[in-house]
Design brief:
two-stranded parallel ribbon
């Protein structure tokens, strides 16, 4: 495995599952040097290029942008094993408390689901894992996001910021409503 030398955790497979490790010792981690004028100018340039890129993205509609595969169908077997191992660790620490895992779709996931009928293996794999354990529930937010867009009379695009793919304020609201409904919690915000 190759890493960039940063002090950050990774999982690696062992004979007994996975172990958490750091590719460098804390003492050997790269330490940020004093910022000189070159760094300041470079960061300023990068920030402006980011803003220009964001503005350029606004000139496209999502349909004109290059499509990426849906993460619901594109997860690798080893990545799924690591993900499920992580969930097992969370479940172990949760004890008898219920665990609800929300699967958060990107715009491309919603588009592939609605327009192309691509469901992917992710939800099936997670659901199979959940049925083999107690107190675990998987909630796929694709349907609630699609229904939320319909209820608010907007396109799926309107649930996301056009420049970076994060949820828009309305997308956050729709997701929050879905989470509150799935958990049985009440919404205290009347706005």
């Amino acid at each position: 495995e190759q890493h960039d030398g940063r002090y950050r955790p990774y999982y690696r497979q062992t004979d007994h599952g996975y172990e958490l490790y750091y590719p460098v010792r804390f003492e050997d981690r790269p330490v940020r040097k004093q910022r000189g004028w070159g760094t300041i100018v470079r960061n300023h340039l990068y920030n402006n290029v980011y803003l220009l890129n964001a503005l350029a993205q606004l000139s496209f509609t999502r349909e004109e942008r290059p499509q990426s595969a849906t993460t619901y169908a594109d997860i690798k077997t080893n990545d799924m094993k690591v993900l499920l191992h992580s969930y097992d660790q969370i479940l172990q620490r949760a004890g008898d408390r219920p665990l609800t895992i929300f699967v958060i779709p990107r715009w491309h996931d919603l588009h592939a689901y609605v327009e192309e009928g691509i469901t992917g293996e992710l939800i099936g794999d997670l659901s199979q894992w959940a049925t083999e354990r107690e107190h675990v529930r998987i909630v796929d937010l694709r349907e609630p996001m699609i229904e939320g867009a319909k209820q608010h009379g907007v396109e799926l695009n309107d649930l996301f910021h056009p420049c970076d793919g994060h949820w828009s304020p309305l997308g956050n609201r729709v997701a929050a409503e879905a989470v509150l409904q799935a958990t049985g919690m009440k919404d205290t915000d009347d706005n």
